[in-house]
Each structure stands twice: as structure tokens, then as C-alpha cells.
TrEMBL record:
The protein, known as: Putative transposase
GO annotation, biological process: DNA integration
UniProt cross-references to InterPro entries, sorted A to Z: Integrase_cat-core, RNaseH-like_sf
Domain Integrase catalytic, residue spans: 4-84
Length: 96
């Protein structure tokens, strides 16, 4: 039986290129997410931070929503944002 692999990745939404990623057979945590963020920024900008803030669209998982992860993103001049959860979208639709 093959072990499941979990992948955390940074994807350029304009050209759909995977900029950086981490993979393991366990779960992922905020350190994994922060490592991928930093790897993506280093690959795109070298040792500099972006001149303008970049919107960083993330999953809604706890590792992405953690205060430390969001603070780390801001230090890299990333603007962390998440999509509304499915439950929230359903509730908003029902209010309609």
C-alpha cells in the first residue's frame, strides 16, 4: 500500500506555474506553509521583498489562517486572503 503524499504549494495564478512546494507523508503545519511562502518569494525576487504588496490567496486550513503565518506573510509584503468557506457561501446564498 502506498502512503498518501500531502503537498503544500505556491502557484502563480496568472501562468499557473508552481513556484515552490513541499511534500511529505504526514500533515502540514504553519512552518511548512511559511517555508513555501519564503521559497516562492526568494525564487521570484531573490533576496528582496516585492515593491508592491502581492495578494496571497490561501486555503482555509488552520496552518494558513494561523496568526503567525499571516504575520509572516505581511513581513514578506504579501497580503494574505482566503476564500469564503463553503458553509459560509451556502448561508449567504440561503439569505439571498
Amino acid at each position: 500500500m502506498m502512503a498518501k503524499s500531502r503537498v503544500t504549494f505556491a502557484l502563480d495564478c496568472c501562468d499557473r506555474e508552481a513556484i515552490d512546494w513541499a511534500s511529505n507523508t504526514g500533515g502540514y503545519n504553519k512552518a511548512t506553509v511559511q517555508d513555501v511562502m519564503l521559497g516562492a518569494i526568494e525564487k521570484l525576487f531573490g533576496d528582496k521583498v516585492p515593491e508592491q504588496s502581492i495578494r496571497w490567496l490561501t486555503d482555509n486550513g488552520s496552518a494558513y489562517r494561523a496568526h503567525e503565518t499571516r504575520q509572516f506573510a505581511r513581513e514578506l509584503d504579501l497580503e494574505p486572503c482566503t476564500t469564503a468557506s463553503a458553509a459560509l457561501r451556502v448561508m449567504e446564498w440561503q439569505k439571498g
